[in-house]
Amino acid sequence: MIDVTRNPKEVIADITRCEAIASSSLHGLIIADAFGIPSIWMQLSNKVSGKGFKFKDYYSVFGETPNCLTGNEIISIKQVKQNTRKRSSKIYRIKEELDLMFHNLNYLLEKHQYMMHNNFIYRYHYCKQKLD
User: Fold this and answer.
1) What are the φ and ψ backbone dihedral angles of 78, each rounded to 5 degrees?
2) C-alpha 112, offset from chain centre
């Protein structure tokens, strides 16, 4: 059991030390995916708002339907490991696309900043000439 009320860095560190994750928290499943840890959604209550929509939505990005255990089904860690899903190959592709987008965005921002700087200098010299 991981105490999720602690500092987020400590929670993430605990998650990364796990062989597999059974989580009722979408954040826990996302962290598990980010670190390549097999995971499964575990529903502990029928009182979850949205009836699992956020989990279904998250898994749909990878073309998957979430496998869900209820608290009554979990018997052992071995069973959790056997029922976990492996990290989808689509996660790697999405990560590569996001990395490329951020790289391109950084380039565009730097280019925009350079152009704005040059535009400012041009206007400064233009106005200075008009005033002289």
Assistant:
1) -60, -45
2) 28
Query: What's the angle, vertex CA 95, arms to CA 68 and CA 83, rounded to 5?
Result: 20
- Residue 56 to residue 94: CA distance in whole angstroms: 18
Q: Which two tokens stand for residue 14?
A: 């605990």
pTM: 0.62
What is the spatial order of strands in the sheet that 39-43 belongs to? Answer: 21-23, 39-43, 68-70
Phi-psi group of 36: left, alpha or beta (phi > 0 → left; psi -120 to 50 → alpha; rest → beta): left
- Separation CA 56–CA 50 (nearest Å): 10
Q: What is the pLDDT of residues 43-87, one digit of tens each?
A: 887 777 788 889 999 888 888 888 777 766 656 777 777 777 666
CA angle 61, 46, 44 (to 5 degrees): 80
